[in-house]
TrEMBL record:
Keyword Cytoplasm applies: no
Species assigned in the record: Saccharothrix tamanrassetensis
Family: Belongs to the cytochrome P450 family.
GO molecular function annotations of the record: heme binding; iron ion binding; monooxygenase activity; oxidoreductase activity, acting on paired donors, with incorporation or reduction of molecular oxygen
Listed name of the protein: Cytochrome P450
UniProt keyword list: Heme, Iron, Metal-binding, Monooxygenase, Oxidoreductase
Keyword Iron: yes
Amino acid sequence: MGENTIALEELGDEYFQDPHTFHAALREQSAARQVVLPRGLKVWLVTRYDDARLVLADPRFSKDHTRLAPLFDKHLAGQGDRVHVDQVLAQHMLNTDPPNHTRLRKLVTKAFTARRVDQLRPRIQQITDELLDEITGRPEVDLVDALAFPLPIKVISEMLGVPMDRRDDFRRWSNILVAGTEPPLIEEAGAAMAMFLADLVADKRDNPGDDFFSALVHATEDNDRLDHAELTSMAFLLLVAGHETTVNLIATGVYNLLRHPEQLAKLRADRTLLPGAVEEFLRYEGPVNQSTFRFTTEEVTVGEVTIPEGEFVLASLLSANRDENRFPDGETFDITRPAGGHLAFGHGIHYCLGAPLARIEGEIAIGTLLDRFDLGLAAEPETLRWRSSALMRALYTLPVSLSARGPR
């Protein structure tokens, strides 16, 4: 291993509990740095804002899944076998380049319209109210289990038509796949999810309803439509991206408000700050740590660093969003700052299609929570654990104390 290469495994759990200190040091040192991921894959990690935007948007950084697999095998030669997840889950638009990406996104956008998302507001509010009704009168709850997880999983499950009794299965499969550890479990979870989603697609073809996924299954553009494998992988992307990120937005947003009582007081005093506060939640402690894999199709210079052709590159969204050159005093949590332009939802053609839905869910969940309860952390911050995932920035639990707020 070269002297400038860092093995994340050697950093241990310290990296996952506090990636910000590590990222800040990397931003000072260079535009890109080679790191070795826990299973032995060597990648270039980009940590500065402008450089991350380049990686996310420049077509020289490809996401073509058909070329990723052999590249993984080449890079992992002698390091052990690549984890084989059912490839039907990989054929979604996040893993494609134009022109195929353009085709897929156009078809998905036909169903995932701004109007359809906005129409979900009353149902999101209803689910939130029902979940908060269940915890009213309890002195302490785990907010991840009580609100942050069940709200988005119910919303996306209803959009996809997933039966209520299978949602715990989805949570288990998703957590395993996102964590990226335990290869046998990953392969098992991927196979189970692929089989279930394929059956779901078949059912929506034969029995369409008035739901988003039925609209997606039957969406057409110039006599083109998504085939069975594309629909299965798209359902996988929507399910994982549609709930994992929002769980983290809600939980970490509340966590940081409770860690910064002066910011919480500002928000309570002026609820018009809430949309901007959500943007600061996303900037300061976004739900995604590092982007998904890209690889260089030719030699590319990032800042002062030249990355050869055929190399894996990851952009740290967490790090870019704290870059002082883009966000002055970026390590400070400030809900009144203009946080627009953050990279929590990505940038370029792969910008998150579900960003408007995540924002709506975050605003309704956190706004209603603050309307109904006075809150406090029910554990010392240093005892809370963050998931050991290079992809997601997520708390395992968020214990909070509750007391109902009376009429104001």
